[in-house]
Prior knowledge:
Blueprint: H1 3-14, H2 18-25, H3 32-48, H4 55-80, H5 88-104, H6 110-134, H7 139-167, H8 173-180, E1 182-183, E2 186-187, H9 188-206, H10 208-218, H11 220-225, H12 230-256, H13 267-277, H14 289-308, H15 313-345, E3 376-378, E4 389-391, E5 397-400, E6 405-409, E7 417-422, E8 426-432, E9 438-443, E10 446-450, E11 456-460, E12 479-484, E13 490-494, H16 504-510, E14 515-521, E15 526-534, E16 537-542, E17 548-553, E18 558-563, E19 572-576, E20 581-588, E21 594-601, H17 604-610, H18 613-622, E22 637-641, E23 647-652, E24 664-668, E25 671-675, E26 682-686, H19 696-701
Antiparallel strand pairs: 1-2, 3-26, 4-5, 5-6, 6-7, 8-9, 9-10, 10-11, 12-13, 13-14, 14-15, 16-17, 17-18, 18-19, 20-21, 21-22, 22-23, 24-25, 25-26
Helix pairs in contact: 2-15, 3-14, 4-9, 4-12, 4-13, 4-14, 5-6, 5-7, 5-12, 6-7, 6-12, 8-12, 9-10, 9-14, 10-12, 13-14, 13-15, 14-15
Amino acid sequence: MTFTDRLIRARYRLIPDHLLGEILSKRWVDNALPMLILILVVAVFGALIPGFFGQASLTNLARQWGEFGLIVLALTVVMAAGGIDLSVGSIFALGNIVALALIGLVELPVPVVMLLTVACGAAVGLVNGLLVGYLRLRAFLTTLVTLIIVRAAVDMLLLKYAVAIASAFPDSDLWYWFGEGSFLSLPVSVVVALVVALIVHLTLSRARLGWQVLAVGGSRRSAHNVGIPVRRVICLTYVTSGALAALSGFLFASRLGAAGADIGIGLEIAALTAAVLGGNSLGGGRGSAAKAIIGSVIVMILINSLVRLGVTSGGSSLLLGVVLLVAVAADMRWLKNRHKLLSKVYVSPTWADLPEAPPTTEASPYALNDRLRPVEAIGLGAIDGPEDVILDEDDHIYVGNRTGDIVRFLAPDYTRQEVFAHVGGRPLGMAFAPDGALLVCIGGMGLYRVGKDRQIEKLTDETNRSWFSVIDDSRLRLADDLDVAPDGRVYFSEATIRYDMHEWPVDCLESRGNGRIICYDPNTKSTRTVLKNLVFPNGICMTHDGQSFLFAETWACRISRYYFDGPKKGQVEAVIPDLPGFPDNINRASDGTYWLALVGMRTPAFDLALRMPGFRQRMAQRVAPDEWMFPNINTGCVLRFDETGKVLETFWDLGGESHPMVTSMREHKGHLYIGGISNNRVGKLKLDGVDPAWTGPQSYWGQA
């Protein structure tokens, strides 16, 4: 290794570039900038204002934030569906005067007052919803008109009832508790706002209605085409907005007990600034309660602090206007450029150096030949992409199909076939359990079991999440191959935690340790990761000692052995570190050795590119994916090796005439059955000098 290579390797090991792409791909990254702004605002005003962090100051600020936070949440719900509600300030003022009139003049019980106040706001929201949702009027103009009308109604009510309201003194401890009391040491308004925020969060992230709201905000036409009641969803968002704004007005009334013509004026601008500043999109389809909370806290601190510093109301409004302008511009630019930025940094090749490829000349154990030429074709043209092939004790052949079926070819002549089970997804590696059930890894779905009665059962689709991983690696993305230990534990590979099955070339381009091996224990129904940071782990095969298994790392071109039991438990040993091609599935042979499929051959150009991560990254950024430098996966090979890593024999099909691609093979009663993920057949090759009665189920479970 040259000095330059050492520097490049150190750079890519010490600076994990892929973390930036993973962070940018997370939804919570939208909250990062608002959180930084919040920290900055708190730090600046905390230093400028004496007593800023005092208990009285924080309590007063919290009570105001509880009321303001409800307004921002109201606006957030509407914005998530692609709308806007400029009437929240007027509804807030209406809720305030209605609550004061009902408690002071009509003298209704406090719960009834709250219910009627919220209903009043919801009624105004219903008007907005009917006009915008069902009559398809423009939200901006419609809610602007509603703002004017409701504000006029508030002014008329003030003229008639202001004096009577001012002279009324409600005799209710519950009323004053809402305005001045606390619950769990928090002001009541804060508790109410947090409860509402939790409900909004659960609705938007977990409930069908929330998903419909975000879908409508993302694209109303598409939402309509998939059957979402767009008009009703939009109407419900405005009803919710009106109800929350009125609830805020109720809390304000219980705290101050005052009704004035200036209450709620400009509140919609402050709420809109908070919603956008928190990261909620004006374009719809992207919004959350967390963003609303962050934005509302920032704006509330700004407004309160400017007042305490003696800045005039005009100055405060000017600052809010500037902040809103900047927030809108940032939101639009972020929406437009986020995916462009992500596409440039997400694919992050690392430095990789493969051992020198062994030769394939006559003196080499990998010597080229045409021993796969006599392969017979089973089901030619009747199967699409049999990645793995396996036979049961009755000699029937099972293969996975690209359409999500497990197809069974019936012995003895294999001219008849049937769909054994439709599992969906992409069936990949298969193995038989001790009870004869077929276990299968399904790309994008996880580990499944198909019983002899053809009943399909999901065993696991997740594992334990890594403590310090930015990637949410609890979900299984590409379960690949598997084998079963003597005690029934299932060990299976997940080729990559970053990419889906159709994106395997991107994982190869990275050649990073994105894969892992996972164990599922049927006795405890638990799943855990046993090996991490593997380079596209693929085939897995139990060794005959019952304490270890062999596994292939495709892009690393090596075979290793992992001990899960015994004195070497937890150790990994290299078996074949320098394969001339890319290994795939591994299976037992009748003489105690093992079969290995090479899905393709290494090339000098691609081996050189692995030591040039910068070149590969530029290729990913500037060249169309169909013009990338790919590994050669068109030359099929099957080889046999022992546990020491000695290669005993190889089978090639140089012209690709009989079996152009090989991803798996199984020995069964003197024949080798061959699968290929890009083939339209199952190959059958007669083997010389092997046990004609040997079967895989017998080797594992003693079945005849």
